[in-house]
Amino acid sequence: MLYRWKQELLERLPSLFERGPQQLTENPLVERFIRTRKEEHVDYADYQDMEDAWQQLTCWLEVEYMTQRIHSALECRTPAEFEAACSLQQGDSPLVHA
Fold first, then answer.
1. Which tens digit of pLDDT belongs to each residue from 26-36?
2. How far apart are alpha carbons 52 and 46 in whole angstroms?
């Protein structure tokens, strides 16, 4: 049985990615990210309420997805490692952003 908060979250998230006439199903990159998020976090998480769900999803995105999960499209690096490498190639400090 799906908790009411999880069901509400799953119903609301796709609408966050809709852009005018283009629907979520027309963007394979967004579709893949949502699938990854659902398979790696939402399917296994228990949320107390919507605030707890947003906190857990934010933590998953900022910590696990960006700094721990390697991505084959980024040469088997995390997004944070990839960004740091790109910044170094451009001569920028990876810790300082405008």
1. 677 778 888 88
2. 9
Write down the domain spans for the chain: 49-98
Per-residue tokens: 11: 């119903």
Neighbouring CB atoms inside 10 A of 96's CB total 7
Retrieve residue 1's tokens.
């049985």
Say yes or no to pLDDT of 93 above 80: no
Q: How far apart are CA 8 and CA 32, in angstroms?
A: 21
Burial classification of residue 53, based on how many CB atoms lie within 10 Å of its CB (0-12 exposed, 13-18 middle, 19 or more buried): buried
End-to-end CA distance of the chain: 46
Distance of CA 36 to the CA centre of its chain: 8
How far is the C-alpha of 91 from the C-alpha of 64, rounded, in Å? 27
Cα–Cα dist 82/21, whole Å = 32
